[in-house]
Design goal:
The structure holds three protein chains of three kinds.
Chain A: E1 4-5, E2 8-11, E3 14-17, E4 20-21, H1 26-33, E5 52-55, E6 58-61, E7 74-76, H2 90-97, H3 107-118, H4 126-133, H5 144-158
Parallel strand pairs in A: 2-7
Antiparallel strand pairs in A: 1-4, 2-3, 5-6, 5-7
Chain B: E1 5-8, H1 41-48, E2 63-69, E3 75-81, H2 83-86, E4 91-95, E5 105-109, E6 119-123, E7 130-131, E8 137-143, H3 146-155, E9 157-162, H4 169-172, E10 186-194, H5 197-203, E11 206-213, E12 226-231, E13 237-241, H6 249-256, E14 263-266, H7 283-293, E15 297-300, H8 303-309, E16 316-324, E17 330-342, H9 348-358, E18 367-376, H10 392-408, H11 412-419, H12 439-450, E19 461-474, E20 483-490, E21 496-500, H13 509-521, E22 528-532, H14 549-576, E23 584-586, E24 589-591, E25 596-598, H15 599-608, E26 614-620, E27 639-652, E28 658-668, H16 675-694, E29 700-701, E30 704-705, E31 724-730, H17 750-763, H18 774-779
Helix pairs in contact in B: 6-7, 10-11, 10-17, 13-14, 14-15, 16-17
Chain C: E1 7-10, H1 14-24, E2 28-31, H2 37-42, E3 50-53, E4 63-66, E5 69-73, H3 78-83, H4 85-90, H5 92-98, H6 104-109, H7 112-118, H8 124-132, E6 135-139, E7 144-148, H9 149-152, E8 153-155, E9 158-159, E10 166-173, E11 179-186, E12 196-205, E13 208-217, E14 224-225, H10 227-233, H11 241-245, H12 261-286
Parallel strand pairs in C: 1-3, 2-3
Antiparallel strand pairs in C: 4-5, 5-10, 6-7, 6-10, 8-9, 11-12, 12-13, 13-14
Helix pairs in contact in C: 5-8
The chains are: A alpha+beta, B alpha+beta, C alpha+beta.
Amino acid sequence: MTAGVALTLTVNGREVSAAAAAHLTLLRWLRDVAGVTDPKYGCGEGICGSCTVLVDGQPVSSCLVLAAQVDGATVTTAAGLLEADGSLGPLQRAFHEKHAAQCGFCTPGMLIAAAAALADGRRRSRPEIREELHGNLCRCTGYGPIVDAIEMAQEEAGR
Amino acid sequence: MTGEGAEAAKGAKGARPDALAGIRTSKRDELRVVGQPLPRHDQAEKVAGSTRYAGDLAFASMLHARLVRSPVPSARITARDASAALAVPGVVSVLFGEDVPRNVIWVDVPGQTVEVAALKASMEVLATDRVRFHGEPVALVIADNQDALAEACDLVAVDYEELPAVFEPDQALADGAPAVHAEGNLLSEWDIDHGDVDAAFAAADVVVEGSYQTQTVDHAYLEPEAGVGWLDDDGVLNLRVATQVVEHYRDVARILGIPEARVRVIAPYVGGGFGGKEDMTVEPYLGLAVWRTRRPVRMQWTRQESLLARPKRHRMRLRYRTAATREGKLLGQEVDITADSGAYAYLSALVLLYSAVHACGPYQVSNVRLRARCAYTNNPPTSAFRGFGGMQVVFGYEAQMDLLARELGLAPAEIRKRNALARGDVLPVGQAIETEVLLAQTIDAVLGRAGGKPRASGPRKVVGRGLACNIQSYGRLVWLNDSAAAWVGFQLDGSLSVRCAVPDIGGGQASSLAQIAAEILAVPMDQITVHFGDSALNPLAGTTTATRQLLMSGNAVYAACVLLREGVLAAVAAATGEPADSLRLEEGRISGPAAGMRLQDALLACRKRNVPIEALGTFFGPKGRPVVKGLHADRVFPDFTFGTHLCDLEVDLDTGQVKLLGYVAAHDAGRAINPRSVQGQITGAVAQGLGMALLEEVVVADGMNQTGGFFQYLIPTATDVPEIDAVVLESGEGMGPFGARGIGEPPIGPPAAAVASAIQDALGARPARLPMTPERVLECVGGHQRLTPAAG
Amino acid sequence: MFTRPFQFERADQLADACELLRRHGEGAKVIAGGQSLMPLVNLGLVQPEVVIDISRADAGRHVTLVDGYLAVGALMTHARLAADRLAAEAQPLLGAAARKIGNARVRGRGTLGGSLAHSDPAAELPLVLVALGATYEITDGRRSREAKAEEFHLGFLTPQLADDELVVAVRVPRLGPGWGWSFQEVSRRDGDFALAAAAVLVRIAGGVIVESRVAVGGVSDRPLRLADAEIALTGATVSQIGDRIGPIQGIRPVSDTGASAGYRAHLCRVLVTRALAEAGSRSEEAA
């Protein structure tokens, strides 16, 4: 094994210091080293979106980022959207209510993509929501229920 | 066209088939839980990110396994050398076919001998002498870290001497073709001869012909194949894998030469299946690795490996000749189907059988001649995929209906209604339709909700509206003696445990069982736990395939709950002196005309009287005789689901690009246990069908799979899929619990046909080949519509 | 997933990265956003020995005005370029192309310098920069040089860059008075690689085309400037565009799993025509 790179990242509010081989992607570091398994491996090409996490507030394909590139960064995964008491956050509650998850494999990435899109507080139409999501693939729902959930979350945030 | 709705249909109830004797159904307005769009319990964990899929579990000192695969489509293996690979530090083992105790997986090919015995086809777990497709597994490498694994896989030296190969079914079936298998390239054939086809064509006022070609498609579930295996404290081989079938423990046991009782398969929540996880994926390799090393092992396929080597949807050539009267009544169908089975049989014979049985669509036609065949080639193998052969033929039979409609000047909806099957009609294979058919109602539903056709957005755009209907079976082929079992038991505090080995692949298979139990036993949903997907600890419920689980495990849970309710009410009756049929089971209590009893006390009363507070329910599917090559049977499937889709789209006359403007899909679900789940199955299946219609193709050239990743295999995104209005009709006449029909597969059939129908409406011609790329659509743009010369 | 191990080096200055490239030789690759390199690495198509990270280097990530030109730093991400107000006002073709790239994740990390160094024939930014006659500023850490966009993109994934050179910045002419612009693309799905694309600038005066710049992408091994078409268009009215264009010369489209060569050639003509029409009406509005 090649020499490890010392890394410290804040993942979902928790500081994690763990060395990793230089060639480890952020996805593999999160899953295999930090034990955070909600971002998923879906393609390795940055296309499916199942590995989407926030790095310093920005959505990235964690399979295309080397962990070493983001030493010191703050990472948020879907699990990081939970409330402090472990209950579902507002976006997660909306997904749950609108049946926006079937097999659920795309869901963690989809939630982060949605959270990133909604961060600016702007009200989006359904076609605009679809544009925000078009980089996250889902094979089960046909996307309609996911758009429903984001619309609902927008409504509630607006109140 | 946005918004959703469910409409109850008025339908006369007829006689129920024997398989359901003793199972009662309830009127819709008496149901409290069934029929409610409740959030599913599994979804809470999924949105929290805490669900652990097959690839999410890790063990200390876990090994990693990976396959070495053939880089060529047809070759003799002349040498294999693992020495360089074994020299890599961290590599534990390199296994070849000779290291597999029984290096064979058998598949039945039914109905192909005169004596009605199954032909058997086989493939090796690891190829020893010959490879037959690009990607065939040849060696299994096991290492204690992924880096060593990657390096070692590149160092396994295999020499191949390429052999002649064949890549087209027609060529494979011609004399002198290279033999993919020793017994010849014809894998399976089915014939249907119904009525007098020649007389029908002679008497016809109109005959339309068409030839259609569907393509090779990949399941493209978001979760690539994965699993972990380990030996537990009793030395039982445990495999926790992404699978649709826990019963593969038997196949793994056979391969390893150990008793079936020593293997356990656990299916966690699966990240999509669609038939692609119906055959074994990682199971035999994980089993082998664990058995050899006695250590936990994980296997994770890459997406590229999945696209390369997983069995695909059969590409088919469909030839139709359809005869009709001037009024549009179908007189006869002549159908010819050729399918590409790829290098190994898998489930091809059954897929072809489904195509044959469904080939004439949801229409009454008394005279049919059908010939179907599938051939081995050196292409990637093909097997189960949502719709399972009943899906490809929709593209053919619906095109014929539109051609007829145009010839006769009839509206597409009208010609379909004139020919729609009804209860009592007999399918060309010989099976009578026993339940109500709401096809006309689904046609009216989509037309009603679609509203007016949209206007084109510019001078070089044209809008079209298309319609497509389909029929799709639910439940397995009846001669497979299908059954499912479920155990339901009260805890002493009144909460409920359900144990059923059903795999949950995202369609709410487990939560449906909870909803059924909640309805019958009046236990709140949050007090019910469903233990699913474990072949050792749960009663077996069979495969999550063939749109069978609601019918099978749903009815098993129903039966167990009914038994349980009867026992508890009888015990309370004995304890209180009130007649059992005056007692009602409500949340937390049993109520009677005089007084009531808390549920906990009732359960204690049961214990005092030796009345069980748990029950095992088993549901046996309808039975039938095995079929022969000349298909004719009173019953092939338990029952069918009918539906209609409508599609509005706009074509760009200069580029051929298609923009989907709107979509309505209506199906008779019998009874929607959870209407939101049913709508989710419809919208998901439509999206997958649209992918096949417009975008997806696994490109294989001279046996080499060219599709190297998601950058080439294009599945629909949120901007490719329009708003889908999913309409659920409920005839109440399905064979599932409360009159439910299966819904998982049916909605994937119509989309390609609906899109083609809309393109024909827009341009006057439709592509006959899938996918309907902009290039193929451009070819349909008539000369008068062209601005510039057609592409050369 | 089964990536072969490599070393990681971080460069805080682009000049340091060049020095590291020289030191490590052929087995070294530079990574910024990783949107081009990492898919190749993950699929095993590229196996570097050393990866040199410049994603946090002290280098230009802005758009500024210098001597009447727009200067864009190589580490400018597509997302920031798409949203940049100065770029939108001074040269709208840049943002129009950037917005078509991939999805939010790709745009958030992918850089201008990365796209240019990758030199994919269907990529949006190289096409637009060829149309604009942009100039690339290139360094090897010791010396700087300039290259015209048209000369830089030599062929399929082949930039005119030595092994130890990096693009530092791009100099782009402003949209002049009276000019109109258009960017047209056809892809199978939103954000996919273009099957064909056209970037056009046109100045109409007195009802006729006085000058134009026409470039197409996805129909050869690099973006092509259609000099012959530009000559043929001079003096044409908007309604005469179709006749003047004729068959597009000099393109060599390929057939692949995305589309056939013939269809790409057809699209090329359609998109050039559409782009000229749109650029023409913008020019007339600007006058």
